[in-house]
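A brief tutorial aside. Many learners find it easier to grasp structure tokens once they have seen a single protein encoded end to end. The record that follows does exactly this for DUF306 domain-containing protein. Read the sequence first, then the structure, and try to relate runs of similar tokens to stretches of the chain.
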Amino acid sequence: MKQFISLFILFTILFPSCKSVQTPSITGKWEVTIFISNNDTLKLPSSPATILLTDTGTIYGSGSCNRYFGTYTFKGKNKIDIVPTGRTQMFCPEILFEDTFIKALEDIDNYSIQDSVLVLSNKSKDIILKLSHFQDKIIGVSNDSHGCNTAAGYTWSEIRNECIRVFEDGIRVNPVNDPQATTSAFIIFSIDSLKAEIFLPDQDERPILSRRILPNGKYAWNMEDDDTYNIRFTENQWVIEKRGRILYSTKR
């Protein structure tokens, strides 16, 4: 018996138990700091390209000009599939960079975290995106009660607990009954995507909705026992509904 115990102790010393290594979470908002395409390092635009990955498999951000959105899924260890499903249609000087960036996202199939940097690449490694956690750069004089510089386009988000620019951090949705409308609503998600905040045009009302699982396994954001507002991702578009009627959509 003593010999068995001695052998067991020796075995545990020589062969320590393996601990499972957890893959670092990649959810959150990231900013592109290096973009290599076809082995060339591209010059980054003045307005950063960003990626926000939620824990519900949705992705959205800025291509530096337009807002885009889509989905992502994990395909195995360090394997990821990103599917951009739509974006706004403004034309900017950075549009060529943005087109290349969106196309690169479609080709990405690998991810890793290296020294707090998110690295995305394709199979052939001729597309590499390196991203750091996004840091808002607020300049100018703070104006409102929360310290947000409204002159620079910042406003307070309750669910983010910080000053944001809705046109940079949110998903733009347009009125479905007025294709010529020049004002839009914006959807802001909390980083963990458990809450959604609606910024309606020309209104102080900013409904805050909670995430709920639907019978089909998909998600919706609404208020319990209240059908006033409902947010869903359906048919490759984000929609805001009110009592069953679609008011805003990412599609024109």
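Self-check: The chain is about 10% helix and 45% strand. If you spotted this yourself, you are ready for the next section.
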